[in-house]
Amino acid sequence: MDIRALHEAVLRQWASSSPPFAQEARLKAALAAPGMLYYRYLYTLVRILQPGRILELGTQSGLSALCMLSALPEAGRLITVDSRPASGYCLRPFRSDPRLHQVIGNDLDRAIYGDLDLAGLDVLFIDTEHTYTQATQEWCLYRPCLRPGAIVVCDDIHLNPGMERFWRELPAPKLDTGDAIHASGWGLCGYRADPTEADAWMC
Ligand SMILES: C[S@@+](CC[C@H](N)C(=O)[O-])C[C@H]1O[C@@H](n2cnc3c(N)ncnc32)[C@H](O)[C@@H]1O
């Protein structure tokens, strides 16, 4: 799906699209906070795409993973990674869900995944340390795992000059959704199978 059409579909559907856990007072507030609408965005995006494989870089509390997991089809798989062992507390009740794989470690080290197969990713969510070097290294490391047409979601693309540069250099097609979804920026990139000079230059 064309990324602009995808974004518009998310915006059309998200008013009527709320994760099943969203009534819990604590989570309801987090999901509705102004400038933090990206949690519901992720839920709706996954509901629309029905992806087979998602990789999230940066679990933190696990709320974004929980939003995606809630919309993931039965046969889908969500791998979420964070360097902090205490990350992912929102995911505790779902630890036995066969769709969920929580990995602890530095995401620049592919060995942390052990036997988990990362090939054929449909969605990659980049959301760890928001620096040019980190985001670029992540893009270069995980790009070969993307299937053609995969969606790369980039958080905080306007947080600092490094992230602005990362976003600028990321190859098209891409869509900057502005600051309404997340105050520090939110972008979608559609992965093409044919690498361009821009891709090669970044890596
Ligand atoms: C912005 S938070 C993630 C937020 C989460 N995706 C959400 O939307 O709720 C960034 C997380 O990335 C983790 N992180 C930073 N550098 C990392 C690295 N090299 N490998 C894995 N995780 C990393 C941090 O520990 C932190 O929990």
Summarize the structure.
With 203 residues, this protein is an alpha/beta fold. It has helices at 3-13, 25-32, 38-49, 63-71, 132-142, 161-169, 197-202, and strands at 53-57, 77-82, 100-104, 121-126, 146-155, 174-176, 186-190.
Distance between the termini: 26 Å
Low-confidence stretches: none
CATH architectural category: 3-Layer(aba) Sandwich
Order of helices and strands: HHHEHEEEHEHEEH
**CATH topology call:** Rossmann fold
Number of strands: 7
**CATH H-level superfamily title:** Vaccinia Virus protein VP39
Q: Approximately how much beta-strand content do the residues carry?
A: 15-25%
The total of helices stands at 7
Which structural class do you get from the secondary structure elements?
A: alpha/beta
Please, could you describe this protein's structure?
By secondary structure, the chain is of the alpha/beta class. It has a single domain (3-202), classed as Vaccinia Virus protein VP39 (Rossmann fold), CATH 3.40.50. Helix content is 33%, strand content 20%. The protein is built from 7 helices and 7 strands. Strands 3-2-1-4-5-7-6 form a 7-stranded mixed beta sheet, sandwiched between helices. Helix 5 (132-142) links the parallel strand 4 and strand 5. Helix 1 (3-13) packs across helix 3, helix 3 (38-49) runs parallel beside helix 4 and helix 5 packs parallel to helix 6 (161-169). It is globular and about 45 Å long. Bound molecules: S-adenosylmethionine. S-adenosylmethionine (SAM) binds next to helix 4 and strand 2.
